[in-house]
């Protein structure tokens, strides 16, 4: 399989796995009343499987800096997962996942604040669209109900956590931390937070039907393996193409499957908000990854020039 075709293959699997996972991720809660904290615990355990595959043939980076960034990436990602399962216990997946897709806005704002980066026009348009989407989500009130405000706020916090995670991923890449090490720290961090999740629900529930943990393991395996497919797609294709494509299409599939299965339509404001959220996140990811690739190309060019000068002098 050619390299160009291979990233498309893994990106398609990512969209399929994450899209289906998003649509059915709340089923253990809605069907069996399974605690969202327990869903997190099973997700953390399942993450070990793709982490083991990611580390095959890859060297685990043992540098203190790699550990520091790995923990920052892992804890923000795992914390976002813990909040996500809580949001799904009261809100609709077809609205929650588009809100979460706005996370690149946080990454962009952090790059402006801490790295003094200037925003290209495409990123500015995306940021405005994302902010407008948040306003419309709050106006639409989701699917209604007393809990609509709660899940909306929680989903926004998930978006913030994953935006911060992406920022630290960029920082880790600049010091040469490989993807397998980053993924392994994500799995480790997930396990670190499991005692907190268990204690918050007063221990592991034993009086639940076997279908609840089984269904949870199946849906969270889609989540975990999808994350591995993202790493594999990014290692085979251009990030400026892979990242925005998967960032947009996975939530779209979640929305389509959710609307078909649950037969619930969003309000007009909700529909506009979904479109703006997906458009905004796609533009910001595309702009951010293009800038990152340009920066890497310049670094490689400078390195080659330095090597040529050294050869001439030698």
Topology record:
Elements: H1 3-24, H2 27-32, H3 36-46, H4 48-55, H5 64-88, H6 93-100, H7 104-114, H8 121-140, H9 148-174, H10 179-192, H11 194-200, H12 211-234, H13 239-262, H14 268-313
Helix pairs in contact: 1-12, 1-13, 3-5, 3-10, 3-11, 3-12, 4-10, 4-12, 5-9, 5-10, 6-9, 6-13, 7-9, 8-14, 13-14
Main sheet characteristics: none
Class by alpha and beta content: mainly alpha
The low-confidence runs, each spanning 5 or more residues with pLDDT under 50, are 142-146
Mean pLDDT: 82
State the total count of DSSP E strands. Answer: 0
Q: What is the H/E order?
A: HHHHHHHHHHHHHH
In percent terms, what proportion of residues is strand? under 5%
The helical percent reads over 70%
Q: What characteristic shape results from the CA principal axes? A: globular
Count of DSSP-assigned helices: 14
Radius of gyration, Cα only, in angstroms?
Answer: 20 Å
């Amino acid at each position: 399989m050619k390299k160009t075709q291979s990233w498309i293959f893994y990106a398609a699997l990512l969209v399929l796995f994450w899209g289906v996972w998003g649509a059915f991720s709340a089923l253990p809660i809605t069907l069996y009343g399974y605690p969202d904290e327990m869903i997190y615990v099973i997700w953390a355990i399942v993450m070990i499987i793709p982490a083991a595959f990611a580390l095959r043939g890859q060297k685990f980076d043992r540098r203190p800096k790699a550990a520091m960034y790995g923990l920052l990436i892992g804890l923000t990602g795992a914390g976002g997962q813990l909040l996500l399962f809580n949001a799904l216990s009261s809100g609709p997946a077809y609205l929650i996942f588009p809100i979460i897709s706005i996370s690149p806005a946080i990454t962009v704002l952090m790059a402006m604040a801490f790295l003094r980066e200037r925003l290209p026009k495409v990123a500015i348009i995306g940021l405005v669209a994302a902010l407008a989407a948040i306003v419309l989500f709050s106006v639409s009130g989701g699917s209604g109900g007393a809990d609509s405000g709660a899940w909306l706020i929680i989903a926004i916090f998930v978006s913030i956590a994953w935006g911060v995670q992406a920022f630290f991923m960029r920082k880790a890449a600049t010091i040469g931390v490989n993807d397998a090490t980053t993924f392994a720290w994500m799995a480790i961090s997930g396990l670190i937070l499991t005692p907190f999740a268990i204690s918050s629900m007063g221990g592991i529930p034993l009086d639940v039907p076997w279908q609840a943990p089984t269904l949870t393991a199946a849906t969270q395996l889609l989540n975990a393996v999808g994350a591995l497919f993202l790493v594999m797609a990014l290692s085979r294709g251009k990030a400026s193409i892979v990242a925005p494509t998967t960032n947009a299409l996975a939530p779209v599939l979640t929305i389509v499957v959710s609307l078909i299965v649950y037969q619930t339509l969003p309000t007009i404001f909700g529909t506009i908000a979904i479109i703006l959220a997906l458009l905004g996140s796609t533009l910001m990811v595309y702009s951010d990854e293009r800038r990152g690739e340009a920066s890497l190309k310049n670094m490689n060019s400078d390195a080659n020039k330095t090597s040529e000068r050294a050869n001439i002098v030698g």
